[in-house]
Amino acid sequence: MIESLLVANRGEIARRIIRTAKRLNIRTIAVHSDVDADLPFVTEADEAVCIGPANPAQSYRNVEAVLAAAKATGAQAIHPGYGFLSENAAFARTVASSGLVWVGPGADAITAMGDKINARNLMAAAGVPVAPGTAEPVADVDAAVAAVGEIGYPVMVKAAAGGGGMGMGVAADEAALRTEFGKVQAFAERMFGDGSVLLERYFPRVRHVEVQILGLADGRVIALSERECSVQRRNQKLVEEAPSPAVGPELRERILSAAVKAGEAVGYRNAGTVECLLDPATGEFFFLEMNTRLQVEHPITELIHGIDLVELQLRIASGEDVVVSNDKSGHAIELRINAEDPKRFLPGPGKVATWVEPTGEGVRVDSGYAEGTTVTPHYDSLMAKLIIFGTDREDALAKARAAVAGFEIVGPKNNLPFFAELLENDEFLSGDYDTAIVSRMRKGVR
Question: What is 132-201's CATH superfamily?
Answer without folding.
Answer: ATP-grasp fold, A domain (3.30.1490.20)
